[in-house]
Amino acid sequence: MPELPEVEALKDFLTDNLVGHEIVRVLPVAISVLKTYDPPLAAVEGREVTAVHRHGKFLDLETDGGPHFVTHLARAGWLHWKDKLRDAPPRPGKGPLALRVALETGAGFDLTEAGTQKRLAVYVVHDPQQVPGVARLGPDPLAEDFDEARLAALLEGERRQIKGALRDQSLIAGVGNAYSDEILHAAKMSPFKPTSSLSPEETSRLYGALRTTLTEAIERSRGVAAGRLKAEKKSGLRVHGRTGEPCPVCADTIREVSFSDSSLQYCPTCQTGGKPLADRRLSRLLK
User: Which of 35, 99, 210, 276 has its CA 20 to 30 A from that of 152?
Assistant: First the structure.
């Protein structure tokens, strides 16, 4: 799933390639992608893109005097930029293409989604706050006013594991499964650690890891073409998706805990005092 760094890089890429250009056609291929009907999708046609914004993991194309085109790429969605779109309109079928946006220059982009779980979403709204997922977002962790005290205040009173708290978009916007693993590895903290047990020193360490991990990921992605962002993300991850590989810090073997629809990765030496965490799904398979 694209997370804050990749969506920020897409925002910068689209700012360079969309702003000042007119959207001439929006062609939906999969009806499931459309989450709003008023204003209609065609309301952005004939309008110039004046700005591109990011709200957590949402991309927001603002048009001149018109509505906002807001999209969330979900787990398996992606944006593919084309310097020259095909002249023939896309045809509905079983492929991954969900929607196409064409500019007056002949360039544009496709929104695609792999797999069978169709969660990629497009909204056309007068105000981004009309999108439920945007309206419930917590603060952006890279905002200027997001300091250590604000993180401490957000976590105060929470009664859950820190991994889940970091992924909660209503608590902190933009962090998902991959970067929460990376942040906790950098903070030398167990993903199962209760938020209620964090000491001031640990909160300070977590804040530093949060800001540094996301900032460095954005810097790695800056200037990378949209089509290469996925590979860039994977190459920069230290523990997430690297089960069985040596930890780049201590060389211990990176372990995994699996859940019904996701998994987390961590280093026992760096994060859990050398103790492997219980993998409930694996335990059930061994019974």
Answer: 276
pTM: 0.93
* One-character DSSP codes across 99-161: EEEEETTS-EEEEEE-SS----EEEEESSGGGSHHHHT----TTSTT--HHHHHHHHTT--SB
- Residue whose C-alpha is closest to residue 4's, from 269, 215, 198: 215
Q: Residue 273 corresponds to which tokens in the numbers above?
A: 């005092």
pLDDT, tens digit, 9 for 90 and up, residues 64-73: 998 999 999 9
Give yes or no for residue 287 having a pLDDT over 60: no
Q: Tokens for 62? A: 């603002």
Is residue 227 a contact partner of residue 246, using CB atoms and an 8 Å limit?
Answer: no
Q: How far apart are CA 259 and CA 261, in angstroms?
A: 6
Would you give the end-to-end CA distance of the chain in angstroms?
32
Q: What angle do CA 199, 216, 168 make, to 5 degrees?
A: 50
